[in-house]
Amino acid sequence: MSVDLNKKILDASKLYLILNRLASQLFENHNDFSNTVLIGIQPRGKILSKKIKYLLESIHDIKDIKLGFLDITFFRDDFGRENKVLNANKTSIDFSIENMTVVLIDDVLYTGRSVTAALSALQSFGRPARVELLSLIDRRFSRHLPIQPDYCGCQVDSINNQRVTVKWKEIDGEDSVYLYIKNDK
Amino acid sequence: MINKLSISNLLGIKYLNEDDIYLIFETARNFKEVINRKIKKVPSLRDITIANLFFENSTRTKISFELAQKRLSADVVNFSSSSSSISKGETLADTVNNILSMKVDMVVMRHPSPGASVFLANNIDSCIVNAGDGCHEHPTQALLDSFTLVENLGDLNGKKIVIVGDILHSRVALSNIFAFKKLGAEVKVCGPKSLIPKYINKLGVDFEPNFELALNWCDVASMLRIQNERMIQSCFPSTREYAKEFGLNKKKLLKLNKEIIITHPGPINRGVELSSDVIDSGKTVILDQVENGVAIRMAVMYLLASRL
Description:
Chain A has about 180 residues and is of the alpha/beta class. Chain A is built from four helices and eight strands.
């Protein structure tokens, strides 16, 4: 398999604008976040959720937003079906989600299977009053399941052999979003 | 870090490499978080069926494996030799083949004969997990012991571990020696000479006959149970004398000018290898070992099942 760099669809400045808009939309709906918690889906939703929390705290001056990270590996529906082992990441949710509004945060919404797994995994931590989904990128024509985001940064129309990758400065050296063509040889 | 075990059966620590052990630890760490949740179950192995074949008595290991399987949502069938057709003369391979023909994906087996799991792996087309075979190996126990020590010490590199007691009849001792050495620890054994195997030096392990010197040397004392059921004849004059020489009590601990970690795989002969004042002092990690046992077994079965 070889992966060719194809197209940068978002650069750092556009990404920053989108993150600001998403934070403002969350602020509009959740006010002081006293009944709302943010949960980033491991691994790629972790950094996005931290950035959203930072923007809510710094721009909208909200204090003590609860942020947790949820690993969905053990809840995935492709265990043993693909020729790969699913390695887990750390889950850290040190608060109750009982009767809270949970905002699930992930970078790319593709088939919807990760979000379904996240909804199953979430049940281990209590019964939330409501669950919302924030996704930076929505690959809207690729869904396998009836899952839609409540907050969407950018919609990308892509075909199945394309991949969307969100890069973050902290781990990848730049803030950007790329559309790749994946060639299986 | 690797993302796949190099083995397709867990027959012994001897067959694992260091990367395998760390992958199991990393996965177990995540499962430990899972089993401390309010809802302790994950659906990973929901279409996997596991048979627990226990040809020898077990309390802890059997419960631990079964809990681990149930926490992973696997279907479980249990078998014990006392109520089976083994007593009618059926061979081990035939018994297991019959069970496998009922579409079982994985076999967890404890057997009194050393090498039984290796024999089975050579003759059966299924995934085998050794839950203890005679005096040979008990790999999941060694993994949970090492995992508990890594949690307490950070890593085992250069750490000094003494294994005390019935080394000759203990499968835990052999598996622990392999595991501790693969993780970089220095290992000594201590106990009556009659309970030390002659080949011990070939494993890269020194024999220290003096328990007091061994305690002064070590960071970790891994105490073992005297396995009376495996002894053909008594290997020491009396239990009382054994307890006096090689039993760990509060008095011996107070004489040390340092803190050491005390482990025991259970079941404990109270007053023989460990005195009650040590067991109940809260200074041992015995119950941590039991908790970690479930997480380690979940990790092992999860990683092996992903290769099916």
